[in-house]
Amino acid sequence: MSGKELLLMEKAYNEVNKYRDKVLDDPYRLNYHLMPPVGLLNDPNGLIQYKGHYHVFYQWNPFATAHGAKFWGHYSSKDMVNWQEEPIALAPSEWYERNGCYSGSAIELDGKLYLFYTGNVKKEDGTRETYQCMAVSSDGTHFEKQGPILMLPETYTAHFRDPKVWKRGDSWYMIIGAQTLDEKGTAVLFTSKDLFNWRELGSIAGSGMHGLGDFGYMWECPDLIHLEGKDILLISPQGLEPNGYLYNNLFQSGYFIGKLDYETLKFEHSSFTELDRGFDFYAPQTFTDELGRIILYAWMGITDETESYQPTIINNWVHALTIPRELKLRNDKIYQQPVEELKKLRKNKVEVNVDKLEENQTHFDGVMGLSTELLLESIKVNSGPFQISFRSEASLSVDMDKKEISLHRRNLKTDAFETRTCKVSSLSQIRVFMDHSSLEIFINEGEEVFTTRYFPSPEDETIIFQGDAKFRLTKWDLG
Length: 479
Known about the structure:
The protein is mainly β. Helices cover 5% and strands 52% of the residues. It has one helix spanning 3-24; strands spanning 39-50, 53-61, 71-77, 83-85, 101-109, 112-122, 128-137, 144-150, 156-168, 171-180, 185-192, 199-206, 218-227, 230-238, 254-260, 267-269, 273-274, 282-288, 294-299, 317-318, 325-330, 333-338, 346-354, 372-390, 394-399, 404-410, 417-423, 429-435, 438-443, 448-453, 463-478. The strands form 6 sheets. Strands 23, 24, 25, 26, 27, 28, 29, 30 and 31 form a 9-stranded antiparallel sheet that branches. It is globular.
């Protein structure tokens, strides 16, 4: 580790110590989500279970609540519930990463943990350089940088980043999010025998490929996973135009289902499906744990015009990661389910059988809180809209006549309520994870998911139900 890297880490720790009390006293600090100790967090990186511990790295700017030269922050856990903050993994100290250690992934080989990431360089003339880099650790905590292992091919712009690495047979593969010279988003595949020397195979999918029309000017955070015999490409395309209820955030995250021929690079795939229907979900990444589960984390935020209005900024921190979600494939659709371990958080169980709601607003004894899980089962919405209001600042509405479910929340910039909507054919279950300033809502065992940050009055713990509906309700506090 270089002296410059040690100095950068020391400066980062000074920021953490300087603002520790202010950050921890923020009433919007989350209870069971991963957050930065100070500054700005964005993409999850390097997700892996290594030597029995879960590791989550993340993009981190410790010096501001804005995007800048990113570090890799680091948490570890034995159960994805109780987390320990680890020493900084990467700091942007070297010539090939001086403007940021950008996103990437992790693998294990011969007992060592390897990190792959993008080194970002911004030159004085405004142009950009990009390098795919590697760092190695024997203990999962302290890393030695190996420098660039892949230079930018001539056929792509410097928007070329976010390497995801995996092994298939006796070869390693790396997929990278890229922009072609004519400014089209694409995902590019490379292969290697030794992790140091990489050969380009070519694009497997992209804007204008395989029957896909114009589909964005840049594809970020590619992730190729295998579920139920299918190859699934997770991607975060930038530059999609809103289309009805689709693509209403600034940037999107979703997936294509198909089958990749590694020899011909033929990847016939389905249409694009968004992973989340809410306001704050971007840059998802997965890993496979020792039980064989494919588990996803995402950035519970996005870079848009409301980002700088978040009320936590005054307390020198912003953004968080989602809860971990296990992915399953049913009828050619990804279902997301909170991992089983999160049940360890449950306490103070309350059960209510609701045969009929009153015409006016209804709340139930013991069904309130700041850090809460709600489970609605055996739902029957008889007529008109059914609505759950969360602490007066967000609500979920169900209209089964239109077969629509909508999430509403207050816009931080305009103070007006805004809406995201999805279509469903039926409704059997709603599962809600509330935290002090977040909502993650799983419809029909994760067939659809809404994720959002919201910022109610810290004293408001009300949960209100309205409409002509019957259901079985279980509520837990999450501690």
